[in-house]
């Protein structure tokens, strides 16, 4: 597959609040700042900073500027493109030690120079002209590997996620709003094996457990941390505030706003 078939997302004003990362992503912040969270650590990038986000991970992104303008440039590297690049350049896999989701890149002037070079090759929507996609994808990859040869161990490692501790993984990542098959894949299991192991460990189906776990966390945040439903429902993996309130009432017998009022009166 050529880079032209990857459908690159060159620049966009908004960034998805939560996502599964299917491919390695180069992220460069051109304006504003963004904070990423992978279930273990938080990472912040400001204007002019950049990193690699590795594939097969979960991540949340928050625009730190609120309603202020935010811009980024990203390059998404699919496996087929990387395999072709590796074969063409006869590159070997070297060991890559970092386990971080957001991988720091050693600062080099080659990268901001490369970012500036993109402007003549982009259209009004910020997409790279198709005739230059392959060239620019390869150019950035060469810069990254020349700057940090050990990154070959990240880009050219095509292994699947290994089987890991399901209970530990789910308790750490239940807030991420992704499909059940994604959770299965990331724990190194088929969907059927994941459901079977999940039932053994939690005595519940994944969907039921996730909703209960998220709602229990919501109750804690509202009752103990004075959070508002509107502040937390997205962070807890719910897509709709009204659905969150309905599910909350079904479990606890009151809406989030009623719990907040109850706590307010009790503290007087």
From TrEMBL:
The keyword 4Fe-4S does not apply. Pfam families: ExsA_N, HTH_18. It comes from the Bacteria. One of its GO terms (molecular function) is DNA-binding transcription factor activity. InterPro entries: ExsA-like_N, Homeodomain-like_sf, HTH-like, HTH_AraC. Residues 164-262 form the HTH araC/xylS-type domain. This is AraC-type DNA-binding protein. It comes from Mucilaginibacter pineti.
């Amino acid at each position: 597959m050529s880079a032209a078939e990857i459908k690159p997302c060159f620049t966009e004003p908004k960034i998805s609040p939560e996502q599964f990362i299917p491919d390695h992503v180069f992220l460069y912040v051109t304006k504003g700042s963004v904070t990423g969270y992978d279930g273990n650590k938080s990472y912040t990038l400001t204007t002019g900073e950049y990193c690699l986000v590795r594939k097969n991970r979960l991540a949340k992104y928050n625009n730190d500027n609120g309603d202020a303008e935010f811009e980024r440039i990203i390059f998404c590297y699919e496996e087929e493109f990387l395999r072709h690049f590796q074969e063409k350049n006869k590159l070997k896999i070297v060991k890559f030690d970092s386990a971080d989701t957001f991988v720091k890149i050693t600062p080099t002037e080659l990268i901001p120079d490369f970012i500036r070079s993109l402007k003549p090759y982009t259209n009004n929507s910020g997409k790279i002209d198709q005739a230059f996609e392959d060239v620019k994808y390869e150019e950035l990859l060469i810069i990254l590997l020349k700057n940090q040869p050990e990154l070959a161990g990240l880009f050219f490692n095509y292994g699947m996620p290994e089987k890991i501790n399901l209970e530990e993984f789910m308790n750490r990542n239940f807030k991420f709003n992704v499909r059940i098959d994604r959770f299965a894949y990331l724990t190194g299991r088929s969907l059927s094996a994941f459901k079977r192991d999940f039932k053994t460990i939690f005595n519940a189906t994944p969907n039921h457990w996730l909703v209960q776990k998220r709602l229990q966390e919501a109750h804690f945040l509202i009752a103990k941390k004075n959070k508002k439903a509107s502040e937390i429902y997205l962070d807890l993996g719910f897509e709709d505030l009204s659905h969150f309130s309905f599910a909350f009432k079904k479990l606890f017998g009151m809406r989030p706003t009623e719990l907040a009022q109850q706590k307010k009166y009790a503290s007087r």
